Amino acid sequence: MTSEHKDVSLTTNPSTNDDSSPVVARVSFKAPPFWKQNPKLYFAQIESQLAIAGITKDETKYHHVVAAIETDVIAQVSDIILNPPEELMYEALKERLIEQFADSETHRLKLLLQELQLGGDRPTQLLCKMRDLSSKVPEDLLKNLWLQRLPTAVQQILAVSTGDLEALAKMADKVLEVTDSSSIHLVEGPNSGCKDCHTLRRQIEELSKSLRDLQDTRTKWRRQSRFMFFIYVLLVPLDHN
């Protein structure tokens, strides 16, 4: 859907008086071709264009949409085209097209949980796509699903960051902008980074244990040193006597 399909023009009839303003006489409108991939968004766009053109009559809106439908789509609404209802023609056509071409809730959830990845998008763009698929998904779950699609390095930075999901998405954009892409491991799927996370966690635990052992050794050494010094202080005077 691009603006090249939109043809809204104003035709004016100037008054015979030189000092009068032109009067709007006609508004022509051409609807963009029907967008099968996202019919809800298509109707949101076309209704804005109809409003700009001043077209409010239901029957007129109906005929504009019919004129924009491709032949392979008309077959899906042939009963309405051949025998339109007497009232709410546009609403009936709109409802049928959305019903026929909008993704089912099951398919949308499948895209959200399994197929949708970051790819070449920015984190904010990915979040926008996921929100479009997740009208019924809780915010916390959406956040976790979104984080799993981000590079491991970005996940680690956001893990210690505060703010709502929108703020985190903007931060993720900035992190990707300043980070060398060659040093970031892109996550191919929701669970592909788990092995690296476990390895990193194990290394951190081993390092922490080594530090604790070192601290224990130093503590014991200091205690032994103080004890030997105490013995030395006690014994040295006796040797002189």
TrEMBL record:
Region called Disordered, residue ranges: 1-22
Polar residues bias spans: 9-20
Residue ranges occupied by any DUF7041 domain in the UniProt entry: 32-113
Coiled-coil boundaries: 197-224
One matching Pfam family: DUF7041
InterPro entries named among the record's database cross-references: DUF7041
Keywords: Coiled coil
Highest taxon listed in the record's lineage: Eukaryota
Coiled coil listed as a keyword: yes
PANTHER family cross-referenced by the UniProt entry: ENDONUCLEASE, RNA-DIRECTED DNA POLYMERASE
Name of the protein: DUF7041 domain-containing protein
Origin species: Argiope bruennichi
Organism lineage string: Eukaryota, Metazoa, Ecdysozoa, Arthropoda, Chelicerata
